[in-house]
Design brief:
Length: 252
Amino acid sequence: MKICLLVITMCLMLQIANGQSQAMDSTINKHVAFKPEALIIPTGLLTYGIFGVKNDPIKRWNVDIREKFNPDRRISNIDDFLVVAPIATVYGLDLMGVEPKNNFLDRTVVLGTASAIVISAVVVTKRNVTARRPVGRSKASFPSGHTSMAFMSAEFMNQELKHLSPWYGVAAYGVAGFTGYMRLYNDKHFFSEVVAGAGIGILGTKIAYWLQPTIQNTIFKQRNKEQDSTQQVFIAPSYNGSEMVLAASWTF
């Protein structure tokens, strides 16, 4: 089990390392250009998870992994808070003078877009794919909503702070990986459901960054620096185990 998680984490670290030399340039490119190779890891994770819904060998492996955990373990709810820890870190560091790649409004719009994509994907999939949880009567186990949000948060932090140091991305993905581990530990999901959630979270965030120039040119084309300094946008995605909620407020 630990080896499986380590392998996936190493794959995600390869994603973090991709493009680090460009990120460390003196001039930061705030727009993330579409690169087909960026789809490899998230779509690979998502594909594995999808196969896990019906594929018997993967389903047996899911059961084997579940049985590796101590059935007398204590349940922890730390994963409910870890899902947004990287997001809080980005905004917290900004308050302390560590500037992310995008200004407050731009990164919040990206975060809102990513949240909308990921939450929609998770909710629609849960409603249309019958997958019973390891324990309990719920049949909306696929994919893991907590893991989706955690990896969305991790990719958001990676994109916003990787120009300062790749270790920000490493830390963010470490938190996301631990969140996925806790979903298994708490017997909320099978392994393939956690893997699929990771793929959705990463992919949704990448799409949001690719859409950023289009959103800027269509919605915020007329804004100026004075407006940037006075506008306040707050977005807080959350998942309580049965519902995903996106709370937002915009003051201008």
